[in-house]
Protein: Extracellular matrix glycoprotein pherophorin-S
Organism: Volvox carteri f. nagariensis
Amino acid sequence: MARLFCGSRNWGWTRRAPRMRRCASSLRTTGLARAAPPWSSSALRRQATRRASVQQLFSTLRASAARFLKPQLFLFRYRTPHHHLSRHHLRHRHRHHRRHHRLRLRHRHLHHRRHHRLRLRHRLHRRLHRRLHLHHRHRRRHRRHRRHRRPLPHRAKLQPPAIDVRPYRYDPYACFQIQDAISTQINVALIDNNIHMLSYFVLNYNYCTELETRVCGTFAYAAEAQNFKATAEALMPYFLGSASVGSVCKPELEGYRVEITTEGSTCLDLSGSTSCNAAATPVPSSTCNMAKGTLPFLVSTRYMVNSWSANSTEYCFQVNVLDASQVVPGGCSGDLSQLGEVQLYARRNLSASVHAVRIYPSVGSSSIVTPSWTAIGGAYLFNVPLHWSISQAQDASVCIELDNTKTMLDLCLGFPGQCYVSTVNTNRDCCPSYRTALGLLALTALTFNTGVAPRLTCK
């Protein structure tokens, strides 16, 4: 039986052509070849011609590309397949090339990154040297304009009244607020005006006391500090507001004076002060002595919300007692150890909104009292009878229950947003008056629970 398969499977390669021709001739002899096989002479000639034309085409393209491109950037390259290598060897070579390519890219990236860091470092060093050179040249040029560089402190100070029966002092949080507000505002102004500073104004807890707080900064040149004086004077109202921790007219600062000064400075001399111009006597036609401290009884700076319901809210004023050494002689007659009543400067037409008045002494049980109204020169005083001793008045409370449609700001007269409350002796010849306002915690609780927010605008 004749062999129908001749040679190997690689029919198209030239080195096997003689064997393929012999095999084709034997097939024609036996009559088994019906058509010209791929190893016939005509097929081999056509294949050789096609291969030669392809090789000639790639040779022409390489020659054309070599005229315009660099020798290592050939775009067309004809390679003969690696027929002498097995599939395993080809896969191993591909993996080796890929791993080598990754390592080469890794080394190139590390080299570029290291070189970039060195270049940035050299650039930074050049900038620093340039800046130091300019700084020293600037110092030499302006040496005659320099002054002795000492820190320039801005001082915020509280000046208490002569009779300080309700002392107010800076706590650490208030001191931090003042230092932060003043230093931030003045540093922004310095930067906007291109003022050279050796040290800007910063916070320092070591400069905090009960009546004074300071922030310090150092100017580089006296001439620039003098030019900055107009800007600093324009910021004086802001500094005074910051030193007041809110408002200079709050009850805690009644009778106080807030001052802003600069210490030990000839190049930037600033000073300013402010105080509240509220009337010390809300009822000018009153005949009793309203000077503070003439009686050992006083009212706290804040009144609170004691309780609330769907229809009414109870506001409470706290009564305290002074030491005997703090009482100021004021010509008061009678027994000074008895608190006869408490008066509130109020609107008479809102009497229907007052549901009840309750008193809570420190010693004894609470009770409901009936108030009275007194007309003095067109004004009305809301009188609450007490007859308390010193032990009963210490940390006691006088509470007024109002309808929820009104608040104490509607009932009270005098300074906007505050109430004037007076303590009266039994003979009614001394009635020291004190300003008081709603506490912040009470304001939040009142708004959240009743939905009625007190109006804090001026009347």
